[in-house]
Input
Amino acid sequence: MRIGIIGLPNSGKTTIFNVLTGGNAPTAAYTGGTFQVNTLLVDVPDPRVDALTKMYHPKKTTYARVEYADIAGLSGSADAEKRGASISGELMNAMSVNDALLHVVRAFDDDTVPHPLETVDPLRDVALLDAELTFSDLSKIENRLEKLEVSLKKGKAFPTFEDDKIEFDILSRLKPHVENGLPIRDFDLTDDEIKRLRGFQFLSAKPMLVMFNLGDDAEAPALDYPHKKSAITSVRGRLEMDIAQLDDEEDRAIFMDEYSITELSAGRIIRESYNLLNRMVFFTVGEDEVRAWETHRGASALECAGTIHTDLARGFIRAEVVSYKDLMAAGSNAAARSLGHIRLEGKEYSVSDGDILVIRFNVNK
Ligand SMILES: Nc1nc2c(ncn2[C@@H]2O[C@H](COP(=O)(O)OP(=O)(O)OP(=O)(O)O)[C@@H](O)[C@H]2O)c(=O)[nH]1
Ligand SMILES: [Mg+2]
Output
């Protein structure tokens, strides 16, 4: 899972990046919309993996991982004429490789930190950046429609003629939607249509997590955001970054206590991202390794086998499945087995979040 952090200059993207990664990337220095991208892979904190490690004492423990990209460079032009156009090719690429976008919105007051539009107005900034993304998508749609119109008029672009007609039809329906300022993720598309549009890498089609970056004791603004594949969250960015950067566990506990923080936001935000992206984890366990694997919700046993290794999918016979809860309640694998908690499931079995799988397979079958 890869999440791109975007937002206006000085909104706190690098601060949030540090909160999420426990990192020390330098903040401040007003980069004023200069293109820059910094990525880091982080383990997904998961107490279930910790508990399984205690049970199995494996040689190795592997957590699921999330990659965060701190993407600077959106200028936040308030000038409608320039919107979308300000997104350079490299910035476009840096954004489009992500599974979801995390929009950091400044909601903290601080006279020493300049705002590119001079005033702090989080709701305006949400709308502004959304407009920037939809405008960039609109210009792609318009350019493509123009080209398609020419080639369809010639009428002999065989064998792509039929495909071009279908694409022209989809884009023509999509255009007024985007012109109305609505993100593409709100538009109902069939799987086939999604496939046909994939190459465009539309930015407003990506799942969006809007994150208010709050001051130490600020409250989150009330945002009406009725869009699909979207979620809203908030974080006291600088406060949490300061805590996340403390090496000493005890110091951290004291700090958290003082500000009544029960859990650092990194884990919570990963869970919110999992929900937004319809992701889940399953586990494999043993003496060698306890490991969390990420997949999409509702994945079949066969798909999970393939996530582990293509051979396991190819030679799939059966999956032995026990839920994390049942295993923990039983206390050991042997106890779970004698209680009848270990089930044998076939290819089609829909795996649940937290299932522990053993894939029986035979590659020679
Ligand atoms: N008071 C206060 N300041 C913050 C908070 N979050 C970030 N800042 C400050 O705002 C400034 C900008 O933060 P960054 O995290 O560098 O912002 P950015 O979005 O990465 O900025 P660019 O990369 O230049 O676009 C820094 O001086 C931060 O210390 C906050 O929650 N409260
Ligand atoms: Mg930055």
Summary: The two ends are 33 Å apart (CA to CA). Residues 298-361 form a domain with the Ubiquitin-like (UB roll) fold (CATH 3.10.20.30).
